Amino acid sequence: MSGFPSADVFELGAEHEQVVFANDPGTGLKAIIAIHSTALGPALGGTRFYPYPTTADAVRDVLDLSRGMSYKAALAGLDLGGGKAVIIGDPAALKTEGLLRAYGRFVQSLNGRYYTACDVGTYSTDMDDIARECSYVTGRTTAHGGAGDSSVLTAYGVFQGMRAAATVAWGTDSLAGRTVGVAGVGKVGHHLVRHLVEDGAHVVVTDLYEPSLERIRMAFPDVRVAASTDEMVAGPLDVYAPCAMGGALTDEVVDVLSARIVCGAANNQLAHPGIEKSLEVRGILYAPDYCVNAGGLIQVADELEGRSLRSERSERLEGFSFERAQQRASGIFETTKSVFALAEADGVPPAIAADRLAERRMRDVGRLRGIWLRG
Predict the structure, then answer these.
(1) What is the DSSP string of 275-317?
(2) Which range among 90-94, 166-170, 308-312, 316-320 shows the weakest confidence by mean pLDDT?
(3) 184 labelled as ligand-binding?
(4) Shortest CA distance to 326 belongs to which of 152, 185, 199?
(5) Is residue 189 annotated as involved in ligand binding?
(6) pLDDT class for 314, splitting at 50, 70, 90?
(7) Do 181 and 227 form a contact (C-beta atoms < 8 A)?
(8) Is the pTM higher than 0.70?
(9) Keywords in UniProt for this one (predicted)?
(10) Less Cβ around it within 10 Å: N or C end of the chain?
């Protein structure tokens, strides 16, 4: 297969329980579903619709993202495991009701071991289409009893994590007067900018998508738009918030970064192992991505509240409470502070401390039967 990883799939996904390749030539669907762990419960993670250059790129991304979801759910205190899915292709050209429904049938075939939700390139309305063929969907529109756009609480959680980092860096939980650079102002970044502006921060933004920048200009005229992310990162910043795709924290970025704090919504921000130590050497406080961006997961997980995980497709979606989900997401402030406290106590970077806390919970309360099976 062209573009397939040269390494054995079992080696690439050595930690993973299950990887499923879904192919429906009639609709053009090519998808990969990765279940990293069900030690704490059924795997929950979004579906990313993205034009990966090769199948190898898609495989590596879905494996990295699904692992991150396990750690994210564990650190957030949820009784859920970690999974993720990717659909290969340009959503603007390929996404149709037929493709989404075909994808839903593949998710349904996993019989509840994996619940899907929104991610890059997919929206709540897409989840409604998937749900026409599948019981195991969350993040649906409010019109269908769902939680709606999960980016709302993702941004809220990142803001809480940023406040926690500020208490360590400057002894205050306010960003007022600080310069915050937000790279990527799409679904999550736009909401994060609003929180920062309301808190009195000076905000600088970048994005490759001009309509997203225009939306920021219209809503927040005092926000400055930088010419590029490279220019923004090299300029004077107190906080850097990567909110686009992963791998934002490269050696080159860390070398020029002036920010005291890195705290953003993007998944898998560290370009390679060892970057967390480089950040620490430079005196930059890194708020681990899966710790602070868990608000969206908490939001869509709350949609499952009040209905049994064993429900049939005919059961009406109910039980979501935005107020309850927001209250739970506000706990990201204390969770992030706990990560920083453990990092200091153990003498390790915050990224390692977060892993230790998540792994401890998966080990201590994980289901003894190993893999989660419905019923």
Answers:
(1) HHHHHHHTT-EE--HHHHTTHHHHHHHHTTTTS-TT--TTSPP
(2) 308-312
(3) yes
(4) 152
(5) yes
(6) very low
(7) no
(8) yes
(9) NAD, Nucleotide-binding, Oxidoreductase
(10) C
User: Is residue 300 marked as binding?
Assistant: no
Q: Position 173: which residue type?
A: D
Rounded CA Rg of the chain: 20
Distance separating alpha carbons of residues 128 and 142, to the nearest angstrom: 10
The string of DSSP letters for 69-93 reads HHHHHHHTT-S-EEEEEEEES-HHH
CA 141/CA 28 separation, integer angstroms: 25
Q: Which of 93, 60, 94, 13 has its CA nearest to residue 246?
A: 60
Which helix (H) or strand (E) is 11 found in, with range?
helix 9-12
HSE-CB for 208 with a 13 A CA cutoff: 4
- φ, ψ at 263 (rounded to 5°): -155, 110
Domains of the chain: 9-137 (3.40.50.10860), 152-294+330-353 (3.40.50.720)
State the pLDDT at residue 8.
65
In three-state secondary structure terms, 330 is coil
Distances (CA, A) of 8 to 12, 18, 67, 247: 6, 14, 18, 23
Which of the following is catalytic: 72, 84, 95, 337? 84
Coil, strand, or helix at residue 257?
coil
| Alpha carbon 205 to chain centroid, angstroms | 20
